[in-house]
Amino acid sequence: MPPDNEKTMLLKQLRIGSEERDEGGGARSRWWIVGAAVVVLAAVSGAALVALRSQPVAVEVATAAAPASGMGDAAILQATGYVTARRQATVSAQITGTLTQVLIEEGEKVQAGQLLAKLDDTSQRASLAQAEAQLNAAEALVHQYEAQLAQAQSDLKRNEQLADVISQQDIENSRTQVKTIAAQLDSQRRQVEVGRAAVRGAEVQLAYTTVKAPFSGVITAKAAQAGEIVSPMSAGGGFTRTGVGTIVDMDSLEIEVDVNEAYLHRVHPDQPAQALLDAYPDWNIPAHVIAIVPTADRSKATVKVRVAIDHKDPRILPDMGIRVSFLEHSADAAAHAPINGALVPVSAIVERNGKSVVFTVDKERAHAQPVTPGQSFGDLRLVDGVGNGARVVRTPPADLIDGARVSVKG
Fold first, then answer.
1. pTM (2 decimals)?
2. CB 210 within 8 A of CB 115
């Protein structure tokens, strides 16, 4: 090979070696940058995770309750019926008028005396103003007669002092004048009382233009709108409303069931019972018998029984279908000791490391409490290991750990 070609080949080999070194150094530099970025990202992620874990977890809590005394009883009879309200009213105006405002909506809670609707009160205000004007005029006449009586009494006194100078007839006339004005004054004072009564009557009529809640409760029906005519009596034709709305006192809810006459001897007042709503068939509601209505339905051969709901709940609504199981204390249950443990929602019991635990909340911290689940009562379950009155997390999140900070919703 010629010398020039050999030199050329040697120079190319040197350049290739130099390029390989440059490429290797660049690669090492790039790998170092990637490794540093990974370390920084891991540090940031760790810091974010720590910050996230330091944030309180929003949870819902329930109170662990002692088992009811009737949970060891046996059902001896079942009957169906409905939830009813002992206290409900369809409110209306006491006079016929046109609604100018309707201040209620279905589902709204109202307090006793709260304004529900207003009627056009133009006529009533005019009548009140007229009655007040007549009262003022009557009171003005009273002042006038009082002044006249004072003058007549003064004239009589002066004439009696001048009996030797004036005639006896003038004295008698003065006395008659005093008596006449006194009678007029008494009559006018009675007119003032009439005027005051007229004012009170006009005020009552004005008050009738406002419709107020007779008791506290929940609006279950809105029967009229602004602009419609309402009346305490039906005026016919279908254009006059007889009610503004219906209020139900939810605290007065109870159950009415029909019991067959043949099994009536199994029911007695204060007897424990359990109720199941058709809408919530897995929810046992503790109850007890209030009274047996002393009359029978001859067409159905049944007797109505009133049953009290021991624990009120917003899910219980008027006219819901319900089934009641009347309980009788069993000898086996009486022979055993009272049921131990506490009732908690079924959703509060979760598995952690192969064990059943319940998270209790104390001083904004969640504590995992191992428990031994027992008998189920609808959406509640008896557990051993949690004290009565403890606050437990209803549905613990999967990432909730022992000692985590929590905030209670609501």
1. 0.54
2. yes
